[in-house]
Design brief:
The complex is a heterodimer of chains A (227) and B (314). Chain A is 24% helix and 27% strand. By secondary structure, chain A is an alpha+beta fold. Chain A has two domains: 14-79, Gyrase A, domain 2; 90-226, Cyclophilin, CATH 2.40.100. Chain A has a seven-stranded mixed beta barrel with strand order 5-12-9-10-7-6-13, surrounded by four helices. A four-stranded antiparallel sheet of chain A has the order 1-2-4-3, with helices on one face. Chain A has a two-stranded antiparallel sheet with strand order 8-11. By secondary structure, chain B is of the alpha+beta class. Chain B has helices at residues 34-43, 191-197, 289-303, 310-313, and strands spanning 2-6, 12-14, 52-54, 60-64, 68-76, 79-81, 84-86, 92-94, 99-102, 107-115, 149-150, 175-182, 202-208, 212-216, 231-232, 237-239, 247-249, 256-257, 261-265, 281-286. The longest helix of chain B is centred in the last third of the chain and has 15 residues, at 289-303. The two termini of chain B are 30 Å apart. The chains are: A alpha+beta (227), B alpha+beta (314). Chains A and B meet through β3 and β4 of A and β15 and α3 of B.
Chain lengths: 227, 314
Amino acid sequence: MPAHDDSTVENSGVYSCGDDLIATECADTRSAQALADHLRASGDWLECVAGIASCVARFDVAAIGLDEAEQRMSSALRTVPAVSDAEAIVIEVPVCYGGDHGPDLDDVCELLGMDRDTFIRRHTGNEYTVEMLGFTPGFAFIGGFDEARDVPRRPQPRVRLEPGSVGIAGGRTGIYTLSGPGGWQIVGRTPLRLFAAEAEQPFRLRAGMRVRFVAIGAEEFAAGQAE
Amino acid sequence: MIRILRPGLQTTVQAGPRTGQRHLGVPASGAADPLSLALANRLVGNAVFAPALETTLTGVSLRFERDCFVAVTGARSKARLNGERVKLHRTLAVAKGDEIEVGSAKAGARNYLAFAGGIAVDEVLGSASTYLPAGFGGFQGRALRAGDSLAVRTVSEAPEMSKTPKEFRPPAATSWALRACYGAEVDLLTKESRFDLFDTNFSVGNRADRMGLQLEGVRFGVGSGGRLASAPVFPGTIQCPEDGRPFLLSIDAQTIGGYPRVAQVARADRHVIGQLRPGDHVRLLWRDTDSAREELLAKHEYWREWLPGISAII
């Protein structure tokens, strides 16, 4: 946080990071999401976006000044509801691990000191939380794979990943929804189409949803893709 | 109908931005220079964000397959109608079979061609704009190719023949100043680099597109250890990765980034980013947030005479 910034409100933890951007640090991703949802529901903001441990709102600075934006953000921080696990939807995401679909699986296994089967058992043995969508449309940051906390991104991003590629980095699982470049370690691929711009519901995953990965074979993958 | 003869480097259908969906990973997209889009649409009697063509560096040429009205704005380029020079910034009446060509930009990066009625394309996620990285919006979610045929909506009344007053033609330059405020992680820059941030004559690198632009000329000292938690970024955010080379995000920028955000171009000047091209010079002018707001309001006041809806445009 820029301590020298003239616009920083002392002690409130709310600060500006641009003439029309107001931000606050959050304890974790879930509370950042909860705050972003709460801000969005007010209709006061142009954009409300959560990061891993922060939340930024963009306001119409032609209509309201920074002081007013700070007040609204501070007031939202006092009224944001506590995060709860209730009513979390669980979605099964089939993944074909390794091979052409998961070119980095062996590297990741080596980093973690486990064999493929163990990795797949561990990765499919837990329920995870969609922490946020972001980066590109529908890209899902899925938290909770703590064993892979020290798995870094690839030093050189791959130039082209297929949609549905499932990557690991820093204890998170990420699912790419578009073809394009990406730096996560790709361990597999899901045949599920998680983002479809023209669909009535373009996004299959939403922040807060619970996810369980299910291992599938190459044939099932091909069949799932054809659906 | 219009038919593309020569598509140029990258010509897309662009309209207004997508807003309120960054939390789903959906970037703004839309015209990289929304002011020039609005000026073109104004000349043909359209709503300011009606779908139009945005060219990149090398212009476009196309043929009209019915009578129409067209206007060209944006970068400093030469336009020809059936081989004869025509001026930018005025309403042109064209007949079926006419061909218009916009040449390479001499200064600035993008031209806008608006057609009375607007290009007939569907809205996807709240806007007709093309978002190339995900292949949606605009014309089949892609840049135009030779032979593409685009429908233009019909209008019941011909637009008034007009030209943009001189004082409302943004000059296309090769040297630009962008007003900017501190970003969230400016303190991760060394003291010297913080000074350099607003005292460097940057040049725009070859990596320059609708996602963002490399700024060259100085290597910043930055201490994030590469372990920053990913945080929201916006068009106009200047990020500085570990290699010390700042990167200015543009209209198609991703929604989340993991590099220190050292500055944020002020709203008043974000439309200028769409005209920057490789080799251009850029300086950042520091503003506190209050001054940035006053200057935005002053800019709106200035433009309101020609574009009454200016506060929705920039």
